[in-house]
């Protein structure tokens, strides 16, 4: 199951390796605006129209933020705090959620937190003990001969709007088999959600969380990390981290009964799967 990485625009500024071009070219200026869109506003898995924020305003904001951060494993005891962060910065901003006007969805909450018992997910915590960023991961194993076909995600989803999103995930599963591309692996680590409090942008939190995830995979003999991105911005973030695209489905090509199901705001134009091989110790 894959709902994808945090699609916030603020992730573009939350990774220290991403730089913003300085140019008067209108096309590059548009790109710059997109990358900076969440410096003052909440962006996300569904970004809307953006505004350019000057560097001076960013400098005024950063000193107000608690910069003493630590990265640690998430446990089931963190569930309520994790959901609080996601509801504020992720659930309402993911492109498909925004398009269908998802609203409250208990099934999405269950999906996001169901793998916390694996202890493969990580949180960024400030000196006050507040969670300001998370990466939620889960291990997916290769089906074995004789295994019963898994139930489709949409078939067990009661929420009508979320069921549309799950049906898209089912379609991707039916048309793309990652184990055919990587026949040497028997499991992979699925990075489901990466979300950072917008106040903590520009501090490299997304990069630190991803690095810790790569460390976990290496230590646990997991050779591949997988991300399904429904957002243009989250895909760009992962590409900056050397993830490579292995599958793309334009939203215009996903149709049910001849009708296009999803048409989120541009630049969100496709579902993309990106992967990264990791060295095993």
UniProtKB/TrEMBL annotation:
It is an enzyme of class 2 (transferase). Pathway: Aromatic compound metabolism; melatonin biosynthesis; melatonin from serotonin: step 1/2. Its EC number is 2.3.1.87. Keywords: Acyltransferase, Transferase. The keyword Transcription does not apply. GO terms for molecular function: aralkylamine N-acetyltransferase activity. It comes from the Eukaryota. The keyword DNA repair does not apply. It catalyses: serotonin + (5Z,8Z,11Z,14Z)-eicosatetraenoyl-CoA = N-[(5Z,8Z,11Z,14Z)-eicosatetraenoyl]-serotonin + CoA + H(+); dopamine + acetyl-CoA = N-acetyldopamine + CoA + H(+); serotonin + octadecanoyl-CoA = N-octadecanoyl-serotonin + CoA + H(+); dopamine + (9Z)-octadecenoyl-CoA = N-(9Z-octadecanoyl)-dopamine + CoA + H(+). Belongs to the acetyltransferase family. AANAT subfamily. This is aralkylamine N-acetyltransferase. It comes from Anopheles aquasalis.
